[in-house]
Automatic annotation (TrEMBL):
Cofactor: Mg(2+); Zn(2+)
Protein's recorded name: alkaline phosphatase
First and last residue of the signal peptide: 1-20
Record-annotated active site: S246
Enzyme class per UniProt: hydrolase
Family indicated by similarity: Belongs to the alkaline phosphatase family.
UniProt keyword list: Magnesium, Metal-binding, Signal, Zinc
Binding site for Zn(2+): D197, D466
Length: 470
């Protein structure tokens, strides 16, 4: 691997990201509602919601969906739910200029249809736990009128405002900043993003205490990444909760947008459909669109449909959609950019590639082979791979891969697991499964070959920390 110009990013917690570029101040923005039970995350207005939400930040030309919702409700649950206002108007302006209808601004020929649904809102702890407390309190039913504009983009840097007008004098406005990307003196050809899921400061301290000697409380040396030139902390809350999860946090790394817990590549709206939420473009999709010859690799010791790897190839409100995520890995999503189809995919999660747990009983092994993937099922096949110029898919067992202990010390613990990736009922012995370093190095060989002068992007996740301490 000599001669590679590589940017290595190591992320050691489930966290959120900051886009490169200057920090902008958003003037006098409405604060999020206080309390644990908001009607819907990132919706401070009593009736209107706009997604992406207020103070979102974009790269010029990146794709996003725009969703506007109008909510109607009566907090007196003994009364019928009122009808939502569906004659709302949505406008946009740039840098405090003239307001323009969004259809005209984005050159949309036909107005999106109004969608209607209802959802329940528990606005207090008494209502949230009514079934446990048996207090007879009912949730507030909220009726919704909504529109969605799909696959939009803002191509010029600046401050944009989107306003929804409802009723004679009521309106709600959000601000977006489209940043001017920084132009580095030297541009990296290759990027490796290491994510050690769940590795918070406490885990780092524990690892250092076990791995490094010390004298009088002073360590002889630090962990390798603690010697990086640049280190930092991140703020990990989601748009509507203090605690995040691997889906929302990995999605923040993949998109530059904070969202809600469980969400992958979308902002969570109020509908029950986990696949209609407004999407934002992934870094991998951006690469495929702007640098189609750059290679992409996704490596994880988790099952491949788990939150972190899925954040780089899928869009859904609910991370718990493994069969559909497997399908998105191959086909992408409707009315959006092309599927990422990474050059390398190494992980677990075999059960979602064939019946009975695959989507509609499809055999995705055959489908990926038709797409030109070389398929490997164990460590030996991976390390002996001679087809460096072909796309590589390695699926090494059902569910998560076994940890270092089961692969090296307690292999007998994996006898009888019936987890072989061909779904034949055979065992996937720990000794037959590759470790993260095996997978990452094998992936780099393929990515270097396939990316060539255009380089590559690789995300490599160490998932076992989170699995073992969670």
């Amino acid at each position: 691997m000599k001669g590679l110009l590589i940017t290595v990013l190591t992320l050691t917690a489930a966290s959120s990201t900051v886009l490169a570029g200057s920090q902008f101040t958003f003037s006098s923005r409405p604060a999020d509602p206080e309390g644990q039970f908001p009607r819907l995350g990132a919706c401070p207005d009593p009736h209107a919601c706009i997604f992406p939400p207020d103070v979102s930040t974009f790269l010029p030309g990146s794709y996003f969906d725009l969703r506007v919702e109008l909510h109607a409700y009566d907090k007196d649950t003994s009364k019928p739910t009122p009808k939502p206002y569906d004659q709302f108007k949505t406008k946009i302006r740039k840098d405090k200029g003239k307001w323009v209808n969004v259809n005209k601004f984005f050159k949309i020929k036909s107005q999106p249809v109004i969608e209607n649904w209802k959802f329940n809102w528990t606005d207090s702890i008494e209502k949230h736990y009514a079934s446990v407390l048996q207090n007879g309190q009912k949730p507030i039913q909220v009726a919704v009128a909504a529109r969605a504009w799909r696959k939009l983009r803002l191509t010029e840097p600046g401050l944009y405002e989107i306003k929804v007008q409802y009723g004679s004098k009521k309106s709600y406005t959000v601000q977006y900043q489209v940043v001017e990307p920084k132009k580095p003196k030297k541009k990296a050809k290759n990027v490796i993003l290491f994510i050690s899921d769940g590795t918070n400061v406490g885990m780092i301290t524990a690892a250092r205490a076990l791995a490094r000697q010390h004298t009088s409380g002073k360590y002889h040396s630090l962990l390798s990444f603690e010697d990086f030139d640049n280190l930092g902390h991140v703020i990990t809350n989601s748009v509507d909760s203090l605690l995040t999860d691997s889906a929302n946090s990995a999605s923040a790394y993949a998109t530059g947008h904070k969202s809600s817990v469980d969400a992958l590549g979308v902002y969570a709206d109020s509908s029950s459909d986990p696949f209609d939420d407004p999407k934002v473009e992934l870094i991998t999709e951006l690469i495929r669109r702007r640098q189609p010859k750059k290679a992409i690799g996704i490596v994880s010791t988790a099952y491949g449909q788990d939150a972190t790897p899925s954040a780089f190839i899928s869009h859904t409100r609910q991370r718990s959609q493994p069969a559909e995520i497997t399908d998105q890995l191959l086909h992408g999503v409707h009315n959006w950019t092309q599927a990422v189809l990474p050059d390398v995919w190494l992980a677990g999660g075999a059960e979602y590639f064939k019946a009975p747990q695959s989507l509609k009983g499809n055999d995705y092994y055959k489908d990926f082979q038709k797409e030109g993937y070389h398929l490997v099922f164990d460590k030996k096949e991976l390390l002996n791979n001679k087809k460096k110029d072909e796309k590589l898919m390695g699926i090494f067992r059902k569910d998560n891969l076994d940890t270092w202990f089961e692969r090296n010390l307690y292999v007998n613990n994996t006898v009888g697991n019936k987890a072989h990736p061909d779904l034949s009922g055979k065992d996937a012995l720990g000794s037959d499964q590759p470790g993260l370093s095996d997978m990452a190095l094998a992936a780099l060989e393929v990515l270097k070959k396939r990316g060539g002068e255009d380089g590559f992007f690789m995300m490599s996740e160490a998932a076992a920390v989170d699995k073992l301490v969670g």
